[in-house]
Design a protein that fits this description.
single chain; 977 residues; mainly alpha; 5-stranded parallel β-sheet; disordered C terminus
Length: 977
């Protein structure tokens, strides 16, 4: 403590820990919330604001009243430990496990508390899915809390909590009665957007008692009191308090660090009976808390500096033996250096012989400045010290040996830790553990391939977990001396991961290079051929893909059941993608559920892929059922990224089936999440968003969405078809042809009819509008021959639509009307209401052109009403405008009955269209003038060209002027072609 009257100019006395200042109201709120009944308290505040101090002051007061609390802290680790904070809190609260009298349920705790193995009941039987395993584990924890007679479970820094911890908290606060009060501290600005923590308060039961405390900065007066308490209660000048408050923004940790640093620099002086600062221009205040902490560490002697270095490497409370081992200091010097490190104020003694940083910011700041070589040595020492524990903590060992660059030990402990995570139902952390090792530590090729095979990419966060894996695999290829078989194995994995990332052609090249050298009878040999069989990437004939599928060898008896399952699931998907009906028999062999979490990933992917193919085939009930199964599996086995794939596929299905309410918002959420949702899923959602915008009438927005969707191989063809329809609507036939030229090879040329359902009608319309009717007929013929008589309702309906388009283009109006009606009936049976209504509209226009107004006009009126009810307002408005103009014309003219026969003469409407064409108007401008669609105008232009035996718009204009059918053009407009 400081003397009452320090000597001016003399050495500064030691600083005291700051008094608890400015939080009385928050302390009272905590006491009121937790005084009698169970509650949930959320304490929010920025780093250094005093959340931990508030919690500790409150818990100390509770302990004096005999109320017991368990406290844990979440650590900022790249790979968190499963339920790490909860495990630490419970471990610290249990003295004798056997004395708790736990039921057999507690056997589920064995993977997380290996040190209790001799006192816990036997491990229970393995459950079928990860969700059931997690819930059993959560019930076991709840039983322990009940036997300990705990009043409060407090977890700090839950913005860093692993997903299992957050799920446990949701489980705990939803129990009735709530077993314990829960207090959580966190920094709101560091919570990931998809964190369960954000849903905690919204998912509380209606009778829960949530209390939210948002800690703000201290004011100037509180700043003066805070600093005074560090200076033995001496008076602090107003000027100094203002200065410090301004520089630290009232954040307590920043104030404490600044005062300690100014004390160390002798920037504090005692003058006129109080504490003040030297002249402002002589004081340099570090810009951040981190900088202040690091400056104080740098003031320690090198040996003493080793102590905070070692504590930061251990990243948690460190005991005497482990800490000394990590520092490498001899026993006689260790105690002295620990004392000096404690004296600098960064460390605190948690309990006798155990030390940690006073704040996590200090831990991270110090760790970052340890020289790389020294850091690796310290991690190696930590790993070797922890290996000597009676029950080595495998997750910590995996981290230390990984960061030490010890590949063999890192592999061993990582796989052990990952297996323990899976046993606890924590598939996500298992995947993170392996991913972190593979992407940060050079590994022998065999170990690298083994580990990459185990990674469940769909359980990993972020939009791109693939690139770093590919880099590691290629590094192994370039730096290790490998046999041809080893090279092939690494290349296969490289290709597989590239294809999963959407780099289809690059992935195929790697797999093609690997295939000749893959070990016969290996799962890779079969999977390589299935991946090459998938119709992805550049256009290839279906026959080539089927050849690869026929080359898939029969699995040998020695192949494991997991590999067999994986192959059967992939084979079913490949068959259906290639349009083979045998795929449905193979799909029925995919189980609805599985026991192994790794198998759950394959089965979830299988149901998702089969659901997508069922959508393409037009088997919408099957698609909906498959996607529902996939969602259930993904939720129960904690495969979050599958949920995005399922959501985008479901959005696509809902577009087709007319389930449009809320669909635009769902699609936009997926597209906008560029950090958490994979590119392929964002592109599918963008396709849906673009189709909705087109139906609503915002063509510019539709084009933006559709062009984004076209970035993905799986959506490119359908996006091109939608863009072509927009161009045809605008009368831009050339653009419609251009956007469909390249995809034509993929969707039509190779016989891949399952990808051509929406494309071939758009391509046929574009070709017919350009006067290339023969080519349009060829496209439709190829599509029909490839499809055959397969039981594929959507493609069969599409084929009817294509034939109707050809009949309309050829002027066979009665046939076209009948075919459009048949197509509409086929679409309705799926159901695809939007396509059915558009087909009925086309049928009505054919009837109208055929002179059957009394039938066509009422049909159009009803179709317009149904389109409006569906949400296709652009189409509904188009019909409304057409009918308004039509009825206006009817009121001034006498309508005859029956269809007039014009033969090779132009009809009145064709004359009107040709007159405007001669004036230089484009199809789009003519359509706007006559209040019809651009497609109708294009059809009438083709009919006029056919009747007058010309092959171009220019020739048509010359012929009708020469024949006196229309007058000379009075004006010219740009863009007449």
């Amino acid at each position: 403590m400081l003397a009452d009257t320090p000597t001016p100019g003399g050495p500064l006395p030691a600083l005291s820990a700051p008094r608890f200042v400015g939080r009385d109201r928050d302390l009272d709120a905590l006491g009121s919330a937790l005084g009698h009944t169970r509650a949930v308290v959320l304490i929010d505040g920025e780093a250094g604001i005093g959340k931990t101090r508030l919690l500790r002051e409150f818990l100390a007061s509770q302990a004096e009243q005999g109320r017991r609390a368990l406290v844990g802290a979440c650590l900022e680790l790249r790979v968190p430990y499963t339920l790490g904070a909860v495990v630490d809190a419970v471990r610290d609260g249990v003295d004798d496990v056997a004395a708790l009298g736990l039921s057999g349920l507690a056997g589920a705790l064995r993977p997380l508390f290996p040190e209790w193995a001799g006192e816990l009941p036997p491990a229970p039987e393995t459950l079928e899915d990860a969700t059931a395993a997690r819930h059993r584990l959560f019930r076991a924890f709840t039983e322990v809390l009940g036997r300990l007679d705990v009043d409060v479970l407090a977890l700090e820094d839950v913005h860093w909590a692993d997903e299992a911890t957050l799920e446990f908290l949701l489980f705990l606060v939803s129990r009735r009665p709530q077993p314990v009060s829960v207090v959580l501290t966190f920094r709101r600005d560091e919570i990931p957007q998809d964190s369960l923590l954000l849903r905690l308060s919204s998912r509380l039961p209606s009778d829960a008692r949530p209390v939210r405390l948002a800690l703000g900065p201290l004011d100037v007066g509180e700043t003066a009191s805070f600093v005074s308490s560090m200076l033995a209660g001496g008076h602090v000048s107003r000027e100094f308090a203002d200065f410090l408050h301004t520089r630290t923004e009232g954040v307590p940790l920043a104030m404490e660090e600044s005062v300690r640093l100014m004390h160390d620099r002798a920037d504090l002086i005692h003058r006129d009976g109080g504490w003040a600062r030297r002249r402002l221009d002589r004081i340099e205040v570090p810009p951040t808390i981190r900088d202040a902490m690091l400056e104080r560490v740098q003031r320690l002697r090198p040996d003493s500096r080793t102590v905070p270095f070692a504590v930061s490497v251990l990243s948690g409370p460190a005991d005497h033996a482990t800490l000394r081992a990590v520092t490498g200091l001899p026993e006689e010097r260790f105690a002295e250096q620990v004392a000096e490190a404690l004296g600098c104020g960064l460390l605190r003694e948690e309990r006798p012989g155990q030390w940690s940083f006073r704040h996590s910011l200090a831990c991270h700041a110090v760790y970052d400045v340890i020289p790389a070589a020294e850091r690796r040595v310290m991690h190696l020492r930590a790993g070797r010290a922890l290996e000597r524990s009676p029950l080595p903590p495998v997750a910590q060992l995996a981290r230390h040996f990984r960061l030490a660059g010890e590949a063999e030990a890192a592999c061993r402990y990582t796989e052990e830790a990952a297996d323990l995570c899976v046993q606890s139902g924590d598939v996500a952390t298992s995947a993170l553990l392996i991913h972190s090792l593979v992407t940060t530590t050079p590994l022998p090729a065999a170990a690298l391939v083994r580990l990459v095979t185990k990674i469940q990419f769909q359980a990993l966060p972020g939009s791109d977990p693939h690139s770093a894996i590919v880099a590691s695999l290629r590094s192994a290829l370039g730096s290790q001396a490998l046999t041809p078989v080893e090279q092939a194995s690494v290349r296969f994995q490289t290709g597989r991961v590239l294809m999963a990332a959407g780099e289809i052609e690059e992935g195929r090249r790697e797999i093609l290079t690997a295939v000749p050298h893959l070990a016969p009878g290996s799962p890779e040999t079969a999977r390589a051929r299935i991946l090459l069989a998938l119709p992805l990437g550049d256009a290839r004939p279906v026959s080539e893909h089927l050849r690869w599928l026929r080359e898939v060898p029969t699995p040998p008896r020695t192949m494991g059941s997991l590999d067999r399952l994986h192959l059967s699931v992939d084979r079913a998907f490949a068959l259906l993608a290639l349009g083979e009906e045998a795929g449905w028999d193979a799909a029925r062999e995919i189980p609805d559920d599985v026991l192994d979490p790794r198998a759950a990933s394959f089965v979830t992917a299988g149901h998702t892929n089969i659901g997508e193919e069922a959508t393409r085939w037009g088997r919408y009930d099957e698609a909906r059922a498959r996607l529902a199964k996939a969602r259930d599996l993904a939720e129960r086995h904690r495969l979050p990224d599958y949920l995005d794939s399922i959501a985008s596929s479901k959005a696509h299905l809902d577009w087709f089936t007319g389930a449009w309410p809320g669909l635009a918002e769902r699609a936009a959420r997926l597209v906008d999440d560029d950090r958490g949702v994979r590119q392929k899923d964002r592109c599918e959602a963008a396709l849906v968003a673009g189709l909705l915008e087109a139906a609503a009438g915002d063509r510019d927005a539709a084009r933006r969405w559709l062009r984004f969707a076209g970035r993905d191989d799986q959506q490119r063809v359908e996006a091109a078809a939608a863009l072509a329809r927009l161009s045809l609507h605008d009368g831009d036939v050339d653009e419609a042809l251009r956007v469909t030229d390249q995809p034509a090879g993929t969707a039509v040329g190779g016989g891949l009819w399952s990808r051509a359902v929406d494309f071939v009608p758009a391509r046929a319309m574009a070709l017919a509008a350009a006067g290339r009717l023969g080519q349009a007929t060829d496209v439709v013929t190829v599509f029909g021959e490839a499809l055959g008589d397969r039981d594929a309702p959507a493609p069969q309906a599409s084929l009817l639509l294509c034939r109707a388009i050809l009949a309309d283009a050829e002027g066979r109006l009665a046939d076209a009307a009948a075919l459009f009606t048949r197509a509409a009936t086929a679409w309705e049976a799926l159901p695809r209401p939007y396509d059915a209504l558009l087909a009925r509209e086309r049928a009505a226009h054919c009837l109208l052109a055929d002179g059957r107004e009394e039938t066509a006009l009422p049909l159009l009126s009803g179709i317009g009403q149904e389109l409006s009810e569906l949400g296709a307002h652009n189409d509904a408005d188009r019909i409304k405008r057409f009918l308004a103009a039509r009825y206006e014309g009817v009121s001034t003219a006498t309508r005859g009955r029956g269809r007039p026969g014009y033969g090779n003469r132009l009809s009145p409407r064709e004359r009107e269209v040709v007159r405007l064409l001669v004036e230089g108007l484009t199809n789009r401008q003519i359509a706007d003038a006559l209040v019809v669609s651009a497609q109708t105008v294009a059809s009438q232009v083709r009919s006029a060209m056919r009747k007058l035996d010309v092959t171009s718009r220019t020739a048509l204009a010359v012929r009708v002027v020469e024949a006196g059918l229309v007058g000379e053009p009075s004006r010219r407009r740009s863009g007449d072609e």
